[in-house]
């Protein structure tokens, strides 16, 4: 089983993106985990579970609600959300880290460590 974490940075301000609402779910399932990025732009816990919440092998979707984040800053954005599909292979990955770099008009992601 694997731990899933994330880190969201606002590339316009160069600061962590605090308060981004994020959903994580298994493809083909109604089971959904939610979280909001902390003051360091990180997600380490889902649905108020401990940081040791583990996920089985499978295909997942993580969705970042960027429109709501930029509204908090009194700004508009082009992408209302960022949705990333990824696979967990618990034989290879005991920790999945998904960094997301955002601005009002762009985003970048990669598999972190």
Would you give an account of this structure?
The protein has one domain: Transthyretin/hydroxyisourate hydrolase domain (Immunoglobulin-like, Sandwich). The chain has one helix and nine strands.
Task: Kindly list the characteristics that best describe this protein.
113 residues; mainly beta; Immunoglobulin-like; 9 strands; 6% helix; 43% strand
**What's the β-strand tally?**
9
Oligomer: single chain
CATH architecture classification:
Sandwich
CATH topology: Immunoglobulin-like
Mean pLDDT: 92
**CATH classification, class level:** Mainly Beta
Major sheet attributes: 5 strands, mixed
Q: What structural class results from the helix and strand content?
A: mainly beta
The fourth-level CATH homologous superfamily is Transthyretin/hydroxyisourate hydrolase domain
């Amino acid at each position: 089983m694997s731990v899933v974490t994330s880190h969201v940075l606002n590339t316009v301000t160069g600061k962590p993106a605090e308060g981004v609402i994020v959903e994580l779910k298994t493809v083909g399932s109604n089971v959904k985990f939610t979280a909001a990025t902390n003051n360091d732009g990180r997600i380490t816990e889902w649905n108020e579970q401990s940081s040791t919440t583990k996920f089985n092998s499978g295909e997942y979707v993580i969705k970042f609600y960027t429109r709501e984040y930029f509204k908090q800053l009194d700004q508009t954005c082009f992408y209302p959300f960022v949705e990333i599909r990824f696979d967990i292979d618990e034989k290879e990955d005991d920790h999945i880290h998904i960094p997301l770099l955002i601005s009002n008009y762009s985003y970048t992601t990669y598999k972190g460590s």
